[in-house]
Amino acid sequence: QVQLVESGGGLVQAGGSLRLSCAASGSISRIGNMGWYRQAPGMQRELVASITSGGSTYYADSVKGRFTISRDNAKNTVYLQMNSLKPEDTAVYYCKATMWGTFLNYWGQGTQVTVSS
Predict the structure, then answer these.
(1) 114: buried, middle or exposed (CB in 10 Å: 19+, 13-18, 0-12)?
(2) Which parts of the chain sit beneath pLDDT 50?
């Protein structure tokens, strides 16, 4: 079992920045890839960025050059630095952890990000 707790969401003006954190606990040694997803009202949940245990990253085209995902394995925490935020970035952001060698995923409870124009 893995527990994920997100923090760092909030209300920010367009052009501003936020940093999301996702702290993992439980069977953390078995965590492989981690990622950030988001879901806007009436929309499907979408992948924003992901990072492997070795540090390789992936970004959705919509956030490339603005968002940075990073991982501190010593703190069992993954971060999402979001710069140059746009109103269309408004969503609930979720952290996901995938267990090594499996398709088993754990999700956090989500944190709201609201970008005002």
Answers:
(1) middle
(2) none
